């Protein structure tokens, strides 16, 4: 199974089977046991990390993941590369392939990743795009697995914007047999292709994906309540309109959490906006799993790197 991931791109969870995703999570659990495990696995290997957008977790967890495995992370901003002066993605990808062993990129348009992957001779990993955020889903699934001791049958309620993080969650959850209830305002539903694919997956394994406008209905009996910013990176011009649409109804408050199971946890990919998508009481309360979730970005990234590059 490990060998099956070697050399592949990680652009979308749609390209990976449930078993493959589970293998990554199992390895993540293992490497979480000791930060020094596999410390020479990427010896002599470089990883180029291209960031069109800001990042705290993705950048630092990935840099540490590469470093702890013995590789060399190289943080790159397109504005400081010849990309800024018009060098093509195709030429950039071909040149990077001669220096490093993997490209990770955080981009505005998903198509940028596809173009990089088309020309690169090395794996390309999606560090977030407008469409999806599969690295985040790996950490989310690991956190749920740790907290509940299982994945199958766990009910996740997604409240708020049907955004990039939600799109990836739907695929990962459906492939691993979790149930998801999504509550969004009309017009802010997740991507239709991702929804259709997730629904096809649920037909195979008997899990459920449901869509609501009412957050209370979605959260009812949930094990996990998850949300994300109402204004993703690149959507700043819509901020005022979005806050008007989402608030106050879609804020995860202690009141809303009361409709979930008594031992339900709260999750958020971060960065969080207290008083917008979540109240301070919930994110800073004892049911919040956000710090474990953020930590798990490191362990899941290490597992993924080992599987894509390890020998
Ligand atoms: N969750 C996440 O991707 O955070 P950053 O934007 O800080 O990388
Ligand atoms: N949906 C958010 C996620 C940040 C990690 C964004 O794209 O800005």
Q: Gist?
A:
The protein is an alpha/beta fold. It contains 13 helices and 9 strands.
Characterize the structure shown.
By secondary structure, this protein is α/β, with parallel strands linked by helices. It has two domains: 2-132 and 297-308, Rossmann fold (3-Layer(aba) Sandwich); 136-293, Aspartate/ornithine carbamoyltransferase (Rossmann fold), CATH 3.40.50.1370. It has 13 helices and nine strands. Strand 6, helix 8 and strand 7 form a beta-alpha-beta unit. Helix 6 (134-148) crosses helix 13. The mean pLDDT is 97. The chain binds phosphoric acid mono(formamide)ester and norvaline.
Which descriptors apply to this entry?
311 residues, Rossmann fold, 4-stranded parallel sheet, binds phosphoric acid mono(formamide)ester, binds norvaline
Which cofactors or ions or other ligands sit in this model? phosphoric acid mono(formamide)ester, norvaline
Work out the helix count: 13
Number of strands: 9
- What is Rg? 19 Å
Tell me the strand order in the biggest sheet.
7-6-5-8-9
Reading the helices and strands in chain order gives HHEHEHEHEHEHEHEHEHHEHH
End-to-end Cα distance, whole Å, is 13 Å
Would you tell me the structural class of the helices and strands? alpha/beta
Q: Which CATH class of the largest domain?
A: Alpha Beta
Mean pLDDT: 97
Taking the sheet with the most strands, its summary is: 5 strands, parallel
CATH architecture of the largest domain: 3-Layer(aba) Sandwich
Q: Estimate percent helicity.
A: 40-55%
**In total, how many domains does the architecture comprise?**
2
- Which percent band covers the strand fraction? 5-15%
Principal-axis shape equals globular
Identify low-pLDDT runs: none
CATH fold field value of the largest domain: Rossmann fold
Give the name of the CATH superfamily of the largest domain. Answer: Aspartate/ornithine carbamoyltransferase
């Amino acid at each position: 199974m490990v060998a099956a991931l070697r050399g592949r791109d990680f652009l979308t969870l749609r390209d990976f089977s449930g078993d493959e995703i589970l293998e990554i999570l199992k390895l993540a659990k293992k490497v979480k046991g000791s930060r020094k495990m596999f410390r020479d696995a990427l010896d002599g290997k470089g990883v180029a990390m291209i960031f069109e957008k800001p990042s705290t977790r993705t950048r630092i967890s990935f840099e540490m993941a590469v470093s702890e495995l013995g590789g060399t992370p190289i943080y790159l901003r397109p504005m400081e590369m010849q990309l800024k002066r018009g060098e093509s993605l195709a030429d950039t990808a071909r040149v990077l392939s001669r220096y490093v062993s993997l490209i990770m990129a955080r981009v505005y348009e998903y198509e940028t990743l596809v173009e990089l992957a088309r020309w690169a001779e090395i794996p390309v990993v999606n560090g977030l795009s407008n469409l999806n955020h599969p690295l985040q889903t790996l950490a989310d699934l690991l956190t749920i697995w740790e907290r509940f001791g299982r994945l199958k049958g766990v009910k996740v309620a997604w409240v708020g914007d049907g955004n990039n993080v939600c799109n990836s969650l739907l695929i990962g959850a459906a492939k691993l047999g979790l149930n998801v209830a999504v509550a969004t305002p009309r017009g802010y539903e997740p991507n239709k292709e991702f929804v259709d694919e997730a629904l096809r997956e649920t037909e195979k394994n008997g899990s459920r994906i449901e869509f609501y406008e009412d957050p209370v209905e979605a959260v009812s009996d949930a094990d996990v309540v998850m949300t994300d910013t109402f204004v993703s990176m690149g959507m700043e011009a819509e901020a005022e309109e979005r806050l008007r649409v989402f608030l106050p109804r879609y804020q995860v408050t202690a009141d809303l959490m009361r409709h979930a199971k008594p031992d339900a946890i709260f999750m958020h990919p971060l960065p969080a906006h207290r008083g917008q998508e979540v109240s301070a009481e919930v994110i800073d309360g004892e049911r919040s799993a956000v710090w474990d979730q953020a930590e798990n970005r490191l362990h899941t990234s290490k597992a993924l790197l080992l599987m894509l590059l390890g020998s």
